[in-house]
Amino acid sequence: VPSSQTITPAGTILKVDRNRPKDVAVSPDGHTIASLCIYQANFYTVNGTKINDAPLKGGPDGIAWSSDSKSVYMSEQNNQIACMTMTGGEWRIARQITLTAPTGTAADVAKRFSGDIQVSGLALAPDGKTLYAASAVLNAVLVIDVASNTVTRIVPVQMVPFYMALSKDGNILYVSNAGGPPQKPGDVSQK
Q1: Model-level pTM?
Q2: For residue 45, with 0-12 CB atoms within 10 Å meaning exposed, 13-18 middle and 19 or more buried, which class applies?
Q3: CA 6-10-16 angle, 5° bins
């Protein structure tokens, strides 16, 4: 560590070969660990035993478990979110959500969906009906109806939203931003 501090790992260290983990989350029931990597999703028991790897083109960041631990959402590249479930003893992609701009979205925002909007943080409502996805490119949180797999709203936030946490009752969404407030006309950037 550059600050001359020492880090002593506690527990088991798991090596992921030829892949870089980007995010990790433990299921609400405490039995499964999901790891989002560049080229796959890795699943382990909490004692470190590998369950399986599943092919996936991982996005920058973002894992959200369902409250019953039966499904997990993971960000992917190219405006995709994978919903993974346990099938035949292995975690696999059950369906994918392709993110498109909702009807009535301003043309300049809708056009940005043609490129990768960089889905980062994810949060799932306690009832499993609404998924929230942070978009680092749009500087917004997308509100997704899980039943129809559609974006219903785009909520502007500050620059480069990344991690999100939803209150237990699902009423408050906390968003951390890697950048500050958006620049306004006349603002000068500092070097």
Answers
A1: 0.86
A2: exposed
A3: 95
pLDDT (average), residues 57-82: 94
Q: Model confidence at 179, in pLDDT bands (50, 70, 90)? A: confident
Q: Tell me whether residue 106 is exposed, middle or buried, using C-beta atoms within 10 angstroms of its C-beta: 0 to 12, 13 to 18, 19 or more.
A: exposed
Cα 66 to Cα 70: distance, rounded to the nearest angstrom: 6
Distance CA 40, CA 114 (A): 24
Beta strands in 46-125 (DSSP E): 50-55, 58-65, 71-76, 80-87, 90-98, 119-124
Token pair of 2, please?
Answer: 């550059």
**Residue linked to tokens 């369906």:** 95
Cβ atoms of 175 and 121 closer than 8 Å = yes
Measured CA to CA in angstroms, residue 1 lies from 6, 8, 131, 172 at distances of 7, 11, 36, 35
The 8-class DSSP code of residue 39 comes to S
Given a cut of 50, whether residue 78 has pLDDT beyond it is: yes
Q: What angle do CA 36, 42, 44 make, to 5 degrees?
A: 125
Q: 101-115, 117-131, 135-149: lowest mean pLDDT where?
A: 101-115
In terms of Cα–Cα distance, which of 133, 122, 115 is closest to 23? 122
Q: How confident is the model at residue 91 (pLDDT cuts 50, 70, 90)?
A: very high
Give CA–CA dist 59/37, Å, rounded.
8
